[in-house]
Write a structure and sequence with these properties.
The protein has about 700 residues and is an all-beta fold. The protein contains two helices and 43 strands. The strands form 13 sheets. Strands 7-6-9-11-12-3-8 form a seven-stranded mixed beta sheet, with no helix packed on it. Strands 5-4-22-13-17 form a five-stranded mixed beta sheet, with no helix packed on it. A five-stranded antiparallel beta sheet has the order 16-14-19-20-23, with no helix packed on it. The radius of gyration is 33 Å and the shape is globular. The N and C termini lie far apart (about 85 Å).
């Protein structure tokens, strides 16, 4: 066979050069390779698309928005890589480069103003066009554009034929621009607007543009996808592009411009007016929004914080999508503080129930707070996860909707100092009803502690809530502990996320890690199984022999009775039942969300003493209206405890030593510190007396 060399033609305007292309040969007389040459690529940055209500128009460009400084070029045929990606750091006149391409029908991609190592690890032999389009652009700081040192990322694609040598690639900016103007036109006393910023701005985008739809398209609804998700300070969570403004008189205005990656959050076509386009009607919590903050005199209180929330989109009502290469022109005029407007929030009271209702609310700093008082717990009064239908958890309580005409503190305190009613204001004060909310304030200086607040109707308790004032923030500091599937063999592990301390515990750090060394505050509060309200134990606190406030035998309607008497401890009804709920050996395992019993036998190893076979429930169950945990947390399913005693009980129980109480140790996975729950003792079922403090306890 004769090996022939094919000479490739490289074309650059009128200049001709020669190049040799080497190809492998097997059984063919002649090997044909694509011709390789140089083509002039010109990059034309297309105009932004502007959004003004429903009218789409071209938007004026700002300085640097069409500047291209450095570009990656890649060529694909039939979805497979044939050239590049190659980086060109020098851009010629008219935004052009001379790029080496194969002269065949293909797609030419260009990516401008991105890192020069973005595609350094791209597989230039087996890479695909799909791989290229899925490349992520990550943003670690606010995106800026000044035409000097900061430029906007751009992406373009041009389909070419074999004869194309002068190729214009239309470039689209991978970000949107938001132009915002806020004007003061309110009669509100002393209204001063001091800052504006965005929240829930994505920290990444992919090269391929997505198409906005009715539901979320991109990115996924996960905190890690958005700027500020790991901020240590709650006030900085998800904040992007904060601007200081000064608007304090009618007629004054302020402006701001931001560049943001696309956030295709979806639409809500049920919104009928702009004032209803707010947090309550957004498709999900990760829709991008503008926040304007300031202060005013509200209900006679000066310097009350107020904020206004505006959602950009293709219109002022239903659309929440932020699309790349669009300009969103948003002009807002502040006319008043209409609290029925979803865009207005008066921050004299922080809404603890904004993310859901529960029987316990945690607070971490001094301030004014409120929570919804028209829902019983989380409203789940049936044995299923729906609000209607199914079997009631308790037949003597059948309504999730509640109402009352007064609110009061039943007890509160910290450390060993607890008292009934308003005898102490060390934790909270000024409890009141405001519409569907109970409001309260803390002391001027934040103090850890606990309080029980009741809603009453004509003097009778309708429902009650535990307020837990603590430095511990479980949303930031929880542990993932190993548990085992309940199949009798412990063949596979699962993970449960748990708080690092007991409900009501104080004396913690923000991480909840001081639990085993700060007795007695670390013990937390005590509960009767299935009841939503904790107990405090008077001046003697957690000492052995102290008794719960009141002890009495139960009756046949104990759930509704306990709701009306949340401070009363009920002794067991009879010695055979060992349960507070009522006569005739009555029990109710659904109050804290147990699922229907699906039994399996497991063997618990007791060291040298051998093993014990236990019957346990494999069902996870659900969070019920009687669950005592805060929003986002629940009483754990039984499977959580299968890690205790699998090798030996001694591995999980650490005896008391000096001032350190005994504690239960849950081993965590992925190398994190174990969770240590102190032995808080328990209340004797016959009398309510506190017993075995620092030595034992029931979880």
């Amino acid at each position: 066979m004769e090996l022939k060399k094919i000479m490739g033609k490289a074309v650059l305007l009128c200049a001709v050069a020669l190049a040799v292309v080497a190809c492998g040969q097997e059984e063919f007389d002649e090997v044909v390779c694509p011709e390789t040459g140089k083509a002039t690529l010109r990059f034309s940055a297309v105009e932004f698309t502007g959004e003004s209500l429903l009218t789409t128009r071209a938007a004026a460009l700002k300085t640097g928005e069409s500047t291209i400084k450095g570009v990656w070029v890649a060529q694909f045929a039939s979805g497979k890589i044939i050239k590049g990606p190659n980086y060109y750091s020098t851009i010629g006149a008219g935004n052009s480069v001379e790029a080496e391409l194969d002269t065949e029908t293909s797609n030419v991609w260009a990516v401008a103003n991105v890192p020069s190592d973005l595609f350094s690890s791209f597989d230039q032999k087996n890479g695909t066009e799909a791989d290229f389009k899925a490349k992520t652009l990550a943003y670690t700081a606010e995106i800026k554009c000044d035409g000097t040192s900061n430029f906007l990322p751009m992406v373009g694609m041009k389909a070419i034929t074999a004869s194309d040598t002068q190729i214009t690639v239309p470039m689209t900016r991978a970000v949107a621009r938001i132009d915002f103007t806020v004007t003061h036109d309110a009669t509100v006393t002393n209204l001063k607007l001091t800052e504006c910023y965005l929240t829930y701005v994505p920290n990444n985008s992919i090269l391929e543009a997505k198409t906005a739809g009715a539901a979320r398209v991109y990115p996924t609804a996960a905190a890690a996808q958005f700027f500020g998700s790991t901020a240590a300070n709650d006030k900085d969570k998800f904040v992007y592009g904060k601007r200081t403004i000064s608007v304090s008189a009618k007629g004054q205005s302020a402006t701001a411009t931001w560049y943001v990656p696309e956030n295709l959050a979806g639409r809500n076509t049920a919104i009928t007016a702009a004032k209803f386009k707010g947090d309550k009607t957004a498709p999900d919590k990760f829709a991008t929004r503008i926040i304007v903050k300031g202060t005013c005199t509200y209900k006679g209180t000066p310097d009350t914080e107020v904020s206004f929330t505006i959602y950009p989109g293709q219109n002022a009502t239903t659309d929440f999508n932020i699309q790349r290469n669009y300009v969103y022109t948003v002009s807002s005029t502040i006319k008043g503080l209409n609290v029925t407007d979803n865009r207005v929030t008066v921050h004299d009271f922080v809404d603890l129930s904004a993310d859901g209702t529960a029987n316990c609310y945690m607070i971490h700093e001094a301030g004014k707070y409120k929570f919804k008082c028209n829902v019983a717990g989380n409203g789940k009064i049936y044995r299923t996860n729906v609000l209607t239908g199914g079997t009631l958890i308790a037949t003597d309580f059948s309504s999730a909707a509640i109402s009352g005409n007064t609110a009061e503190i039943l007890w509160q305190g910290s450390g060993n100092s607890y008292a009934t009613g308003n005898a102490t204001t060390s934790v909270i004060k000024n409890v009141a009803i405001d519409g569907d909310y109970i409001t309260f304030e803390t002391a001027a200086t934040f103090a850890e502690g606990n309080a029980l607040v009741a809603l009453k109707n004509n003097g009778t308790v309708v429902w009650s809530w535990h307020i837990w004032a603590t430095n511990y923030k479980p949303e930031d500091n929880n542990s993932n502990v190993d548990t085992y599937t309940l199949n009798g063999t412990y063949a596979t592990k699962t993970t449960e996320f748990v708080m690092r301390c007991n409900l009501g515990a104080t004396g913690q750090t923000a991480t909840g890690m001081a639990a085993e060394t700060t007795a007695p505050q670390c013990y937390g509060l005590k509960y009767q199984w299935g009841r939503k309200d904790p107990f405090w134990h008077g001046a003697s606190g957690w000492a052995n022999g102290a008794t719960a406030n009141i002890s009495a035998k139960g009756n046949s309607n104990m759930v509704s009775t306990a709701i009306k008497n949340p401070t009363q401890f009920y002794i067991n009804y009879d010695t055979s039942n060992y349960d507070w709920i009522g006569a005739n050996a009555q029990k109710n395992n659904y109050l804290w969300g147990n699922g229907d019993m699906t039994a399996t036998n497991i063997s618990i190893v007791h060291g040298a003493s051998g093993t014990t076979t236990r019957v346990v429930n494999k069902q996870r169950g659900f969070k019920s209206a009687f669950d005592p945990c805060p929003v986002g947390w629940r009483v754990p399913p039984q499977a959580l405890w299968t890690n205790c005693g699998i090798t030996s009980v001694a591995n999980n129980y650490v005896a008391a030593s000096g001032s350190v109480p005994a504690y239960l140790k849950l081993l965590s996975n992925v190398g994190r510190n174990p969770v240590k729950y102190p032995a808080a003792g328990y209340l004797l079922r016959e009398s309510g007396a506190v017993s075995y403090v620092a030595a034992s306890g029931y979880y």
